Amino acid sequence: MEKIVLGIDVGTTSVKAVLVSSEGKMVDEVSAPHDLLSLRAGWAEENANDWWNNSVTVVSRLKERNPAVFEKISCIGVTGMVPAIVMLDEKGSPIRNTIQQNDARAVDEIREISEKVDQKELFALTGGYTNQQHVLPRMLWVKRNEPEVFARMKTVLGSYDYVVYKLTGVKSIEMNWAVESGLFDIRRKTWLTDQMKAFDFDPAWFPTVNPSGKIVGEVTPAAAKITGLAAGIPVIAGSADHVASTLSAGIVDEGDLLIKFGGAGDILYCTKEIVTSEKLFFDCHVVPDKYLINGCMAASGSLVKWYLGDILDSYGGDALKKLDEDASKLPPASDGLIILPYFLGEKTPIFDPEARGMMFGLTLSHTRAHIFRACLEAVIYGFRHHIDVIRELGYVPRRIIATNGGSRSRFWCQIAADVLGQEVRAYPSHPGSALGVAYLAGMTVGAFSSWDGIHAFLTEYRTFTPNPEAVKVYEKSYRIYRDLYEQTKPSCASVADLYR
Fold first, then answer.
1. Radius of gyration from C-alpha coordinates of the chain
2. What is the DSSP string of 405-448?
3. Contact criterion met (CB below 8 Å) for 162 and 52
C-alpha cells in the first residue's frame, strides 16, 4: 500500500514543503518566502514566527492541491538551518529574533571563551574550537547586551526543532544541532554541563537530544486545526538541512561529496568514521554508521542575492537571464576581478568573524556583468578551499554532486567544474533538504526499505566537465584569492573595530 510522507524545510529565504510517495515519486512541493535580517554589519537574524506561519501556509497549500493524497500522510520530518538559536520564554514563545548560524556579532565573546575554555580539550570532546557558529558565544552576547530579554529565556531550540515543537508540543533537540553547538560531547552524546555552568548557563535550557529519525511526538489537535493535518501523525526529530541535502543527493557512500548552493554554502564529504579537523565541522549522517566532514560558508547564495537586489531593476524585464548571458561571455576570472565572499565574516575553513568581503582588481572597464560573474566565482573558490582541506586530511572526492538554487544555473555549474577541476553532476530541479527529511521520515515508518532507494528520485541531472583552458586560468586566480585574505586579514580586523 502506498504511503505518503511530508517533509518541511526551514531555509534561509523560504520554507518549503514536499509530499513524497513510497512508490518513488515526488507528489508536490510548495514554498513561501521570508527574509534574512541583517540590522548591523555581521548580524544575521530571522523571525521564528515567520517560519511557523510559512510552515502552516505551505502545508495548507499542499492539502488544497492534493486532498486525497494528503490524507495518506504517515509521518512528518522537518529540516532546517543549524545551529540557529531560537530562545523561548516559559510559555514557549520566542523572546527575540533568532540568531542565525552565520551571525558574526559575538567577536568579543569568542575571544573570552577561547581564553577561559581549554581549547584542546574542547576540540577532543566536540571536534572543534570555539567559533562564531557555536551557540555559547552568541547566547553570551545576548546575556550581556540584552539582559532583560535573556532573563526571560527558559528553552533553547534550533530552527527545525521549533517547528517540531509547534507541531507536537514536544521540546526536542536533534542530534546535529547538538553536535554543531560546541556544547556537546560527540562520542559520549552528552551535553557539556560544566562548560554551561562556567558561564552561568542552565543545562535545563537545553532539551533532550534525539537521533534524527526518532519519533519524538505526534501532531497535536491544535496544530492539526491550523495546518489541516490529521492529529496523531508521528513527527521525527528531523535533520540539519545540509545533512538532509546530503541524503537527498544520493550521497550515502564514502568518497561522495556534495556542494550545496544555498543562502549559505555547504560542502559535505561522506566517511565511514568520525573525522575531525581544526578547519572544518563534523556531523552525523542520517544514514547509520556514516559520518560527514562538513564545511559551511557564511555567505554564498546570499552574496549573489545581495548583489542582484541592487541592480536587477535597472536591467529591465528578464533581468537575471540577461545578466547571466552577459557574464557568460566574459573570460574566466572576470578580467582580473576577484571577490572575497566574506560578507558575513566566515566560518570554515578560516573561522574568522572579522573577515570582510572585498572586490579586488576593479577597473573602469569592469561592468555589472563582471561583478556578477566574480560573485559566482567567489563562491566556488570558497568550495575549492574546503576541498583542498579535505584532501589534506587524506580524502579524495570520488564524485561531486551539486544541489539547491545555484545548481539550476548551467553557467554557475560550469564555473564549478572549471574551478574544481573535476566533473560536477547537478540536480537542477531537485527539492533538496525537504526530500531528504521526508525520505528519512519514510525510513522511520517503513515507507522505504533501504537508503539506496533515494536514487529513485535522482533521475534528472546535468553533467559538467572541466574546460582545460578555463582550469588553467582558475588555478592562477584561485591562488590570488587565497593570498588576498592572508594579506588583508589585519586590515579586516581594524575595520571590524570601527563597529565595536
1. 22
2. GGGG-HHHHHHHHHHHTS-EEE-TT--THHHHHHHHHHHHHTS-
3. yes
Cell 540536480 found at: 427
Check residues 222 and 299 and name the one with the higher pLDDT. Answer: 222
Q: How far apart are CA 243 and CA 240, in angstroms?
A: 5
The answer to whether 306 and 297 have CB atoms below 8 angstroms apart is no
Short-list 378, 321, 328, 385, CA closest to 351: 385
3-state secondary structure of 351: coil
What phi, psi does 144 have (nearest 5°)? -90, -30
Angle in degrees, CA 135, 7, 272, rounded to 5: 60
Residue with grid cell 526536542, as numbered in its chain: 172
What is the rounded distance in angstroms from the CA atom of residue 253 to the CA atom of residue 241?
Answer: 19
Distances (CA, A) of 124 to 1, 144, 164: 47, 29, 31
Beta strand pairing status for 155-157 and 86-88?
Answer: antiparallel
Q: What is the DSSP letter of 101?
A: T
Distance (Å, rounded) from C-alpha 346 to C-alpha 391?
A: 20
Please say whether the dihedral angle defined by the alpha carbons of residues 91, 95, 97 and 101, taken in this order, is positive or negative: negative
- What is the maximum span of the chain, computed from C-alpha positions, in angstroms? 65
Residues 6 or more apart in contact with residue 370 via CB below 8 angstroms = 327, 330, 334, 335, 337
Question: In the predicted model, what is the mean pLDDT of residues 439-450?
Answer: 97
The contacts of residue 239 (CB under 8 Å, 6+ apart) are 77, 79, 160, 174, 176, 212, 247, 286, 433, 436, 437, 440
Q: Which domains does the chain have, with CATH numbers?
A: 4-242 (3.30.420.40), 250-429+467-500 (3.30.420.40)
Q: Are 359 and 339 in contact (CB under 8 A)?
A: yes
State the number of CA atoms in the 13 A half-sphere of 437 facing the CB.
32
Residue 367's CB is within 10 A of a number of other CB atoms, namely: 16
**CA–CA separation, 401 and 404 (whole Å):** 10
Distances (CA, A) of 18 to 362, 430, 439, 448: 43, 11, 10, 16
- Mind listing the pLDDT tens digit for each residue in 326-350? 999 999 999 999 999 999 899 899 9
At which residue does the C-alpha cell 502552516 appear?
56
Exposure class string for 381-398: b at 16+ Cβ within 10 A, else e: bbbbbbbebbeeeebebe
Residue 419, pLDDT above cutoff 60: yes
What is the reported pTM?
0.85
pLDDT at 228 over 90: yes
9/464 Cα distance (integer angstroms): 28
